[in-house]
Amino acid sequence: RTPVSSPGLAPPARLFYATLAPKYPIVVTGKGSGLVPMGKDGESGVVQGSVEAGVAFAISINPELQALDAELRPRGGCARAGHDDVRAVGPPHIVFAAMQRFHDALFARLGLVVQPTKCECWIDEAHTCQLSHHT
Q1: Contact at 8 Å (CB) between 110 and 60?
Q2: How far is Cα 60 from Cα 4, in angstroms, rounded to an integer?
Q3: Which of 84, 89, 133 has the alpha carbon at shortest distance from 113?
Q4: What is the distance between the alpha carbons of residues 85 and 3, in angstroms, rounded to a whole number?
Q5: Is the dihedral of CA 69, 72, 78, 81 positive or negative?
Q6: Which pTM value belongs to this model?
Q7: Distances from the Cα of 109 to the Cαs of 29, 63, 113, in angstroms?
Q8: Is 65 left (phi over 0), alpha (psi -120 to 50) or beta?
Q9: Exposed / middle / buried, residue 75 (Cβ in 10 Å: 0-12, 13-18, 19+)
């Protein structure tokens, strides 16, 4: 599925392409080490860090983000993202397993690899006892 074929993403995807698309409207690919512009001439795709890159990335990961959110909601959690910053909230043993599936799905569909050195985790003291039971 493309963003334009997704009912909830079609309007912003069309606006994005109409206002920010490069000469050749091919967004990005990422096989192994982040987002890489597609095309041979350097005029297609987006440059990582550019204004349009955040929008393209957010649209690209939306299906996986929605799946992560749907997995966490029944356990009182949720998943939200702002451009490329994803936050998953819920019981630690649920979130860690769900995030691994999220990472695996991003790699399988987009070739994106999560950078562990850029990841952070905060666990409320009330939940630290759960960690030893679910490792």
Answers
A1: yes
A2: 11
A3: 84
A4: 19
A5: negative
A6: 0.64
A7: 10, 10, 11
A8: alpha
A9: middle
DSSP code at position 1: -
State pLDDT tens for residues 56-77. Answer: 888 889 999 999 999 999 999 9
Read off φ and ψ for residue 30, nearest 5 degrees. -145, 100
d(CA 69, CA 25): 29
One-letter identity of residue 1: R
Identify the three-state secondary structure at position 44: strand
What residues have CB less than 8 Å from 104, skipping those under 6 apart?
A: none
Structure tokens at 97: 């397993």
Asked if residues 94 and 72 have their Cβ atoms less than 8 Å apart, the reply is yes
pLDDT in tens, 7-33: 666 666 666 665 565 554 444 455 555
Query: Alpha-carbon distance 45 to 53, whole Å?
Result: 9
Q: What CA dihedral angle connects 47, 50, 52 and 55, to 10 degrees?
A: 100
Burial class (CB in 10 A: 0-12, 13-18, 19+), 84: middle
